[in-house]
Write a structure and sequence with these properties.
This protein is of the alpha/beta class and 248 residues long. The protein is built from 9 helices and 10 strands. It has one domain: P-loop containing nucleotide triphosphate hydrolases (Rossmann fold, 3-Layer(aba) Sandwich). Helix 3 crosses helix 4 and helix 3 runs parallel beside helix 5. The chain is globular, with a radius of gyration of 18 Å. The N and C termini lie far apart (47 Å).
Length: 248
């Protein structure tokens, strides 16, 4: 299942203003892995995600999805394999109704109308939002918007699901629903988040970034509970695992 593999080979990326977002980053994620990407603001997490499906292209190095390099010529193929849910669902919801939003990707893939309808219903059912099918997205709650944005990606049947700060702005109930939903996605998933407790629950492996460099890559519990490493990375221990005196 090589199409479920994503690999960074010595990837660096600089923005036009000269800001160096990533520096010589290498890792390989294989079929069925759940991997967290953690680091402080400015560590390069969002840039890393954008590189995964060609929203930006490397300044140097190479990003591979299976055996396909991410280039301008392969973008349509890559975006069918790698589904990205950005932090703010309003960036992905722009159609008059939920149904139209979720169907946008499958329609642009050139799928038959009946197949599109089936995918939309299945994706909305998976995220518990089938009853919102006719609603305008701007009338949804934050948690509902997040779920519908995920449905829009799931409707394209990606091999790899990538999420940027999925729990941001969610209340505890919506956060728990999101975690339960993601536990049911059995293909490869990559989650960039400040929510280290969420990463611990969903991702056996995590990659720690700081100042654009890969600081550590390994078992999530081992890395995220390492006080010295978290200090070096500009992070704090997961809240659930803090000692009472550490919680103010």
């Amino acid at each position: 299942m090589s199409h479920h593999i994503i690999e960074f080979k010595g990837v660096s990326f600089s923005y036009p203003d000269g800001t160096e977002a990533l520096r010589d980053v290498s890792f390989r994620i294989t079929h069925g892995e759940s991997v967290g990407i953690v680091g402080p603001n400015g560590a390069g997490k969002t840039t890393l995600i954008m590189l995964m499906n060609g929203l930006v292209l490397p300044t140097s190095g190479e990003v591979m999805v299976g055996e396909v390099p991410v280039t301008k010529k392969t973008l349509s193929r890559i975006r069918q394999k790698v589904g990205v849910v950005m932090q703010n669902p309003d960036d992905q919801l722009f159609m008059p109704t939920v149904e139209e939003d979720v169907s946008f990707g499958p329609i642009n893939m050139g799928l038959p109308e009946e197949t599109v309808r089936q995918r939309v219903d299945e994706a909305l059912r998976k995220v518990g939002c089938l009853h919102l099918k006719e609603r305008p997205p701007h009338r949804l709650s934050g948690g509902q918007k997040k779920a519908v944005a995920i449905a829009g990606v799931l409707a394209m049947n990606p091999d790899i699901l990538v999420m940027d700060e999925p729990s941001a702005g969610l209340d505890p109930r919506a956060r728990r629903s999101l975690i339960d939903l993601l536990k049911g996605f059995h293909h490869s998933k990559i989650i960039a988040s400040h929510d280290l407790d969420l990463v611990l629950e969903l991702c056996p492996r995590c990659i720690v970034l700081n100042q654009g460099r890969l600081l550590a890559d390994g078992n999530s519990e081992k890395l995220l509970l390492d006080e010295e490493l978290m200090k070096d990375a500009g992070l704090e221990l997961p809240l659930f695992h803090k000692k009472p005196q550490q919680i103010k």
